[in-house]
Each structure stands twice: as C-alpha cells, then as structure tokens.
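Hi L.,

As promised, Pantothenate kinase 1:
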Amino acid sequence: MGEEAMGRRAVDLSGAEIRGDVEGRNPPIFLPRQPAASPLLALDIGGTLIKLVYTASCEGGGGGGGDGAELRFAKFERRRLQECFDFIRAKGLLGCNGTRSTNENVLLKATGGGAYKFADDFREKVGVCLDKLDEMDSVVSGANFLLQNIPGAAFTHMNGQRNPVDVSPNNLFPYLLVNIGSGVSILKVTGNRKFERVTGTHIGGGTMFGLAKLLTGCKSYDEFLQLSQKGDNFVLDLIVKDICGELVCQKQGLSTSTLASSFGKVITSKKRLTDYKPEDLASTLLSAFTYNIAQIAFLVASLLGLRRVFFGGSYIRGHKSTMENISFAIDFWSQSQMQAVFLRHEGYLGALGALMSYGDLRGENLTLDESKEEEPHHESAAPVDGTPSDEENDNNIFPYLLVNIGSGVSMIEVIGKGKFERIIGSHLGGGTILGLARLLTGCSSYEEFLELSQRGNNLSVDLTVGDIYGEEGYPKIGLPASTTAASFGKVNSSKLSDYKMEDLAAALLNSFTYNIGQIAYFVANLSGLKRIFFRGAYVCGHEKTMDKISRSLKYWSKGEVETTFLCHEGFLGTLGAFWSYENMGIDSLAAHEVIREVLLGAPYTGQFPSLPVTEQQENGENNSLEGEVKSLRHENASLKAEIERLQRENAELRANLGAATL
C-alpha cells in the first residue's frame, strides 16, 4: 500500500480534548479535525482483557474539518472473545479502515500477546487480519499521546483529593512508566521514540485477581474492587502495634498502624477461610499488592535517579483505594520526594498506541533500547550461594545488607561493628506466605506448607509469557515462554476445590521468595552492596526457601551479589568461612528486644541500641570482664534466641489479641 494512502488514514490529533463526563471512567476523546467518514479501530489483546479503541462520528466539532470524530473505548474479558467479535460487527467496524491485506481480509492494528495467539481466530471468524505491533512500543506510544496531546490526562490522587498535573511536552522526559497488567512492566521513557524496559514483577493485577477469586469467590475484578471498598485489612494484617505495643511505638517514633506483615494475623488465628468476611480478605489483598508494586517502583526510580513516576494499566481502573495506596506508599518511601501520577484511560495505553500507528510511515512506532531484564522463572539454573573465603577478616566484611525474614521482612545496611546506616522493610514476608497458605491449603505449620510445595507445580496456576504470547515467548525483550508473567494469573475458577493444595503451595512459595529476592537486590544495588546475608525463622533451615531466594538473587544480580544464609550463630559456609554475629558486627542484633523494636518496616537510622548497663559498669569496675561475659552470653544464646524469636512474637500477639477481646 502506498505512502499516500497510509497518510490519509493517519490520526489527526489537532485540538484533541476529553469530552462528556470528565470525572467518569474512560470518557470519549474529541478529535475535531479527524474525518468521521473513515473510522479506525485498534486492539490490545492482553493476558486477561481485550481493549478496543475506535473512532466514531459525533455531533458538533467544526474547526474547519467537519463534525470531527471521537475516540471511544471498550473492553472484554479475553475468555469472552466471541463477545468482542459481536461488538465489532454491531458497531460496523469490520472493514472500517478501508485497508485490505493481500488476501482481501481487513487489516487491523493490534498489540499484546493475544495478537499473536488469536490471529487465526480473528481471520477465520470475522475475516480480519491483525497487523501485529510490539506491546511495549504501543504502551509507551499511548502514554506519550495522552501526556503530550490531552489536557488533564495526568493527575495525582492523595488523601482523597484528585488534582490535575500540568505536564509540559517540552519537559516530559525522562520518566518512569509502571504498567500494571496481569504482571507489571517498568519502563524508562527518554523520548517520543525511545524507551527501555528496565524490569518487571510477576506480582501484578493477575495475582490480585487470581487470589481474590480463590479467597472471596468473586467473579470479576470490578466485583473484587467493590468488595475491597467495604473491608478492613487490619482484621488480617499484622501491624506494628500488634508486635510491640503502643509504648514501644512511641519510643521508636513509629506509627502504631504501620503495616508489618500482610495476612500476618492469620498465622496465630484459629479461624478458617470461611470465618473471614470476603470484604476484609479483598481489602487485605489490595493493600498487600498495591503497596508492593509501589515499593518496587520507588526503588527502581531511585536507582535511575527519576522523580517522575506515571502509573498505567488495566488493573488501576480509576479505583480510589488503588490509587490512594500507591500514592501513600510512594510518598512514604520517598519521604515526599516523589509523587505517583496516574493517567486517564490508563487501561488503554497499548490500544491507543496501536491506533496512533495508522499513517506512521517510519515502520515501527518506537525504538526499543536493548534491555535484557526478565522476571525469574521456574527453570532458571540454581545459583551457587556466594560465601566469603577463609582469608576474609572482620574489617572487609563491611558494608553488607542484612535481610531478616520474619513475619515481615527487614533490611539493614551494616557499615561497621554495631553500626547501621539505613533500614527498609517489606510487608510481604513469612507471615504473608504462611497466612495465605493456611487460608488456601489449611496447613497448620510452615513445615507442612513447605512439604506441600515440594509436591506441587506452580505452572498449574501461574500465567507464563508463553500463555500470553505463544511458544516463542517475547524474544524482543528477552522473555522466554517459560518466564512467569503473573503469579496466580491462570486462576479462572472461583472454586478453591478446583485446584490442588500442592500447586497452590508451590505458587505461593515461588511468588513471595522471588519477590523478597528482587527487593533485596534493588536495595543492595541502590546502596552499592555486593554481599547479602539472610537470616530468620522463615528462611534458614528450609532448603527449598533458601534455594529459591538464591536463584532469584543470582538472576537479578547476574551473579554479582554474594548470598549467604545465617541459620544460626557461627554458620559454616559452603566454602569454609566461619561467621559469628560478633565479627559481623551484629551481636547486639541477636537480642530479641532489638529485633522487635528496631527491625520494623519504618525507615530508621542510627546505631544499634546498647545492652542494659550493669551497676558495675556504671562504677567503672570490671569493664573487661563484663564485656567478655556479654560476648560469651551472646555467642552461646544466639541459636536459642533465633528459635525463640518468632515464638515470642506470636505469644505477644496472642496476648494483645486476647486483651482486645476483653
């Protein structure tokens, strides 16, 4: 087809603006100079949804170009493909572009993995050939279209207030685009035709929806969002006050409502899944995963030195709590140095980008910078745990990242003996894994859960890149078909009994251990650290857990970060290195009170609190003897403290819960 014909079908964006209910969901975009006589259609066929953007005639417009046209939006679940076909026919969109392929079938622009997977269905059932466009190209093109051409397309949502963001096209780049679909892709956009897929996470909208089906029985994502609005996540979530009480919170300057462990209260409760309200379960799921996505976005933006972070994707849907959670988390972790910015029509970025490609005479609408990041997947080779050699001494172990996996996850940068520089944490820890495992499988202990996971196959419920794109995967950005795209993204049934407990356990372990490894890598990378030590009752001594975290760290760091597990005081590494809490500079850290009071989710900087001072020390007597006694006491009691740590936390939680019921 000649360039002249292609040019006639280009989209005229002059004077584009949102019309109708400006506050409504996906209102039409008015194109005053777009000819209405030649409507256009583009599709984005994703992992769970089919999104359509098409032009249609409208009343009033002028501007010298006739009545103009409107961009309109529609979506269908991918499993209801026939409904999409019926809609296209009913709207008269077949043959709308006046473009025909060599075999006389209508040629439509389409993106997303489904454009490859369902190409034959479109051709055979509705006589349409799909002109397949790269998904990342289209998403970025759609975002740039909105930000550069549509007034009011960007806004913030914080503390219940929605405020428009004035984005100057001349000062737009670079920015970070976080696209929340079934999984999450994170892109650094540096220009109109330049971007790089920096990373992604398999914990996305598909994870939320899959688990929501199993836990609440909801049939649609919109139903899940409605449930979450009525629920209380504190019924299932473990917060700081539950662990250490209000007095300690005041002492440490922590908010009593700081989230410590999503689903963490479930591990000490005798309730079963049916004893919880669907609304509370939905609220807990939403907060757990939106906070996690926001934290990863913050870490990536910090690594890249970016302060402008835009969120898009079909799983946001203009939902107030979703946007509120993401905004709060970005503001919290960045100490108000970053803002989460959202986009109108955020679920249609790919389809909008595909539509913009009509009349693009330059071939591909964007250029993808080389980026080989991909998400961890079940077939990646197990890395060898990095351990220091015998020649290491007390001085060159520092600095390092210490990751403590309890009910939640705490990460400390240790810079010297008894000194640390920074703390960050994650609410998705061992308490989350075991809490969800109890609800989904009915297991009574972490050991039973791990045993179940050994016999399961996560691919029975996890959505892979191959499930979306076909057997070739997504080679342009280096994602093989076996890569996990969305944990629990393959869950279609709302009946828990339709799935094997073993498969659900395997998917849980796979999902959260890789997530911990990914966040630990980002934190270490941000601090320039090459050595990570893991400790905690939920990881050490459990070979399967350690193996998956090791795989994740080797994958993300490409083998550049050393991973060691401190199962107890004096852990003997595989290369013969002997580490003690004392020579690692964390002998005080072994004390339960320090773990409880310091290693919580809120950022904190300073020095490890000293141990209680004895009367003899106050008088300046026997300092040397007292120091030796303390050192021996910590060395001998550390293993016991490790074992008792979680038991004490649970006992405190039971006491607090018992007092609350009186």
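Residues 623-661 form the longest helix (39 residues).

Thanks again for sending the construct details.

K.
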